[in-house]
């Protein structure tokens, strides 16, 4: 369903011969900024701090954008 919602134009860049697809990860804007910071990056020791880790520590991704949205945390202004 997510691929359908993204549309053909967005998905035409994916290589289906290697099962390439978009995956979604729900997090807070602050955590996303930290991950993208020049000296930041993903730190496994922080995994599961906000919403828990039902299956143990790790980086969880979803094929469905609505599933990723369930784990997103809004900032003070309400932005996700």
What class, by secondary structure content?
A: mainly alpha
Question: If helices are DSSP runs of H or I spanning 4 or more residues, what is the number of helices?
Answer: 4
Q: Beta-sheet strand percentage?
A: under 5%
Number of E strands = 0
Radius of gyration: 14 Å
Largest sheet: none
Q: How would you state the average pLDDT, rounded?
A: 77
Apparent shape: globular
Please write the string of helix (H) and strand (E) elements: HHHH
Low-confidence stretches: none
Helix content: 25-40%
**Span from first to last CA?**
21 Å
Question: Briefly, what is this?
Answer:
This protein has helices spanning 2-6, 8-11, 29-36, 65-70. With 80 residues, it is an all-alpha fold.
